[in-house]
Amino acid sequence: MRLVIIGGSDAGIAGALRARELDPSCDVTVVLDDAYPNFSICGIPYYLSGEVVDWSKLAHRTLEELSSYGIAIRMNTRALAIDRSRHQLLCRTPDGGSQEISWDRLIIATGATPVIPTIEGLSAGLQTDRVFLVHTIADARALMSALSSVQVTRALIIGAGYIGLELAEALTTRGVTVAQFEAREHLLATIDPTLAGQLEAELAIKGVELVTGTRVSSLTANDDVTVTLSRDLSTNTTTTTGDIAIVVAGVQPETDLAVAAGARLGHAGAIWVNRRMETGIDGIFAAGDCVITHHQLLGESYLPLGTTAHKQGRIAGAAAVGKTDEEFRGVVGTQVVKVFDQVVARTGLTELEASTAGFEPFTITTNADDHKRYYPGARTINIRLTGDVSTHRLLGIDMLGPTSAAVHKRIDVAATALQSGTSIEELIDLDLAYTPPLGTPWDALQIAATEWLQLVSQRQESISREVALG
Amino acid sequence: MRLVIIGGSDAGIAGALRARELDPSCDVTVVLDDAYPNFSICGIPYYLSGEVVDWSKLAHRTLEELSSYGIAIRMNTRALAIDRSRHQLLCRTPDGGSQEISWDRLIIATGATPVIPTIEGLSAGLQTDRVFLVHTIADARALMSALSSVQVTRALIIGAGYIGLELAEALTTRGVTVAQFEAREHLLATIDPTLAGQLEAELAIKGVELVTGTRVSSLTANDDVTVTLSRDLSTNTTTTTGDIAIVVAGVQPETDLAVAAGARLGHAGAIWVNRRMETGIDGIFAAGDCVITHHQLLGESYLPLGTTAHKQGRIAGAAAVGKTDEEFRGVVGTQVVKVFDQVVARTGLTELEASTAGFEPFTITTNADDHKRYYPGARTINIRLTGDVSTHRLLGIDMLGPTSAAVHKRIDVAATALQSGTSIEELIDLDLAYTPPLGTPWDALQIAATEWLQLVSQRQESISREVALG
To answer: What is its EC number (chains A, B) (predicted)?
Structure first.
């Protein structure tokens, strides 16, 4: 049995590894159009910052390791067309020729491509020595080459999502001044505005010139880069100049090959798959940033993330070798980002997502200490907690705190609770660990839960009173 | 309605607060036999170390705060006898007189008392200016007074459980040399011996002279303290001398009042209560370190801990004012301790507890990185994972890692999963947060889960082969 996988990033390699684990007789070939199989693209900001000195360290596994698992890697080989009936994959080989690779099972793991925002002067010739995307290892090396050879003292970052913020930190760490533009009212559209505001303050302290609620309308790149900025519907514009510009405005699923092969698309134009990562085309599976994401609270969704790509790839690999009892349980929307000394994390639904999905959300914003205040170094964690007013089901949590406050694992507690359909009352029952230097007898999450219950109860009483008063 | 609570520590105060919250008309009186209501006795080691300068900072709340919640505190008032029929509590008042306090509802929250191990010379006159217990704030102040006034360069600590280890760190931090004796083969009987061994190495690095598998058979206190040590059944003895000795050999439930009032005892001689903290005696509730602990995997158990005392107290307070729909969901055995730069944590069952409880446990010991190795500061977390071979249910986790590795919150993820009856496969499905400086795409827990499944599957295959070969 020959399994061919298109794409050598998280989903593709996870599928390859799982297939070989379950069926060591399976012939597994991974086709990828660059020279960077199994790289951690989430690590790019830390290469650019200088914290990771050698880009090759960003590989999850070396070629030798992949080879030792019995996986054949075909680098610099671009998949051009999937022939469903003949079970052939047409590829352009590294020497520019073309070749057909036959498959019994195929996994499409083509990932996502960067969204190019509508900015005058940006559409064509995007990647020059002054304007960069940061999506692949090749992108990262090109940018690093510019940072090392050109005099870069000021960088313009277009976009303030997860990657944009990590890049703002990375370049600041290098000593580059960062001006950053976000079209939305706040950075990180997925988190609570109050918490976003606090993170914005952190960026300001670190010297990042973040401008939110502001669109970049045009871009001119010559010996430097000038952008024109306009605030919402205002006709007034301003301009600012930097040595380079980096465009990080999100990603979209890469589906061309799948569509040409007749695959159905789903949410956000991503390849539709069932929970076994089957596309509906016989023998063809898909996983990772190119497919829809099953969300435990929202149903079909699209949330491209490395963790999910690994999980989906693992399922696809199992399904491809005939182990069809494994299904993707789905995500709950867990995300985390470190920005300088602060960590912001979320899981579950925002209030808007919750209402749209038919829940009756009620949200509180509060804060709690990471450990007993009497022990040195106690810090405040800001928490936003959303629950359903009628069922008291936990719907979502956002947290912001310093790196020392373990926000990145506290959100995992919430995610685990959410994934079990836990109620707010049951959060209070959780048997969580406590020692004064590292916690509080009622954990921060439980303090938020208690406050949520109190406020919901007061709200109900106030509604009852109003009803009684007619 | 008058609620009287015997005991002013975690359970007693949690009960008082909850009763007042639910029924502001309720008259709540807390009777305690010392002058330290609502103190965090878990914080004592950090007062002794010097990290908490003022002992009064160890209070969770001040007297004024308690008073503002409408709670009457009767300090230095010892409860002597409960009269069930007349609903009176006989007390010795601060001036040495006696007084009856009438109650409609009573919560017994008398806590635990230290176990005094059988050591020749120890039984009588335990607390001198050379020999100390460390259980109450008064104990802590007495010890601190000795540390400040006597020349203490070497301390003998009898016991290496949670408190013993925290004290070893505290005194070392003060510059006192610590010799520590543990009768069991390893420190912290509740954790995996491999992990215990690693923690023992950490203590050695920090200069603590820990001797395990060794009993203290006699103790002589004069101008200094000399103990005689014997190893298991060996008749050979050695002696060692220090300036002071501290006895921390665990605790036992304080049940005298309850027993005299006719309360039934349960596991480990603790006061039996149902999940509403009812003792079975009309109008009398009990909570905290004096009662049994409902354990979600073991049933009736005894695990005296501050977190549990808070939860039980909260339930008792609610039940006492007639809100009887709240029940204590039970613990899963979560514990954590920081010892110098290492954190060891556990949740669930040890292998022995699991077999005894009728499970079919299988345990693996492995390790995983706390975050991506390419990002600076990655550290190893040692993990022991126990699951049930037939159902694949998660049964227990132990973890050891440096404070930076967030072991204290990673164990909470495991505890939350355990509390929902999660299977090992479902651990792999958890949607946990990832960013390279703080995590790995498959979290350490998921790496352990994957390894457990692989080893169990290999084990099953090997058993099948043996069966086939007859």
So the answer is: 1.8.1.14
The yes or no reply on domain A2-42+53-112+252-320 and CATH 3.10.580.10 is no
Residue-level pLDDT, tens digit, chain A, 470 residues: 999 999 999 999 999 999 999 999 999 999 999 999 999 999 999 999 999 999 999 999 999 999 999 999 999 999 999 999 999 999 999 999 999 999 999 999 999 999 999 999 887 556 678 999 999 999 999 999 999 887 899 999 999 999 999 999 999 999 999 999 999 999 998 888 889 999 999 999 999 999 999 999 999 998 899 999 998 767 789 999 999 999 999 999 999 999 999 999 999 999 999 999 999 999 999 999 999 999 999 999 999 999 999 999 999 999 999 998 999 999 999 999 999 999 999 999 988 899 999 999 999 999 999 999 999 999 999 999 999 999 999 999 999 999 999 999 999 999 999 999 999 999 999 999 999 999 999 999 999 999 999 999 998 888 888 888 76
**Spatial contact of B382 and B399, defined as CB atoms under 8 Å apart:** yes
Q: Which of B51, B413, B437 sits opposite A413 (nearest CB)?
A: B413
For the domain B335-469, what is the CATH code? 3.50.50.60
For residue A343, the number of C-alpha atoms closer than 13 Å in the C-beta half-sphere is: 25
Residue ranges of chain B assigned to CATH 3.50.50.60: 2-40+58-112+252-320, 131-249, 335-469
Q: Nearest CB to A438: which of B51, B307, B338?
A: B338
How far is B10 from chain A, CA to nearest CA, in Å? 9
Q: Which CATH class is domain B131-249?
A: alpha beta
Reported as half-sphere exposure (CB side, CA atoms, 13 A), residue A406 has a value of 30
Nearest residue on chain A to B50, alpha-carbon basis? A375
**What average pLDDT does the segment B402-407 reach?**
97
pLDDT tens-digit map of B70-84: 999 999 999 999 999
- The alpha-carbon gap from A225 to the nearest alpha carbon of chain B, in Å, equals 31
Classify domain B2-40+58-112+252-320 by CATH architecture: 3-Layer(bba) Sandwich (3.50)
Query: Measured between beta carbons, which residues in chain A are less than 8 angstroms from residue B435?
Result: 42, 166, 336-338, 408
Domain with CATH 3.50.50.60 in chain A: 2-42+53-112+252-320, 131-249, 335-469
Question: CA of B441 to nearest chain A CA: how many angstroms apart?
Answer: 5
ipTM of the complex: 0.96
Sorting pLDDT into bands at 50, 70 and 90, what band is B96? very high
pLDDT, one tens digit per residue, over A44-80 is 999 999 999 999 999 999 999 999 999 999 999 999 9
Which residue is closest to A438 within chain B, CA to CA?
A: B408
For residues A329-368, one letter each, b for 16 or more C-beta atoms within 10 angstroms of the residue's C-beta and e for the rest, the string is bbbbbbbbbbbbebbbbbbbbbbebbeeeebebbbbebeb
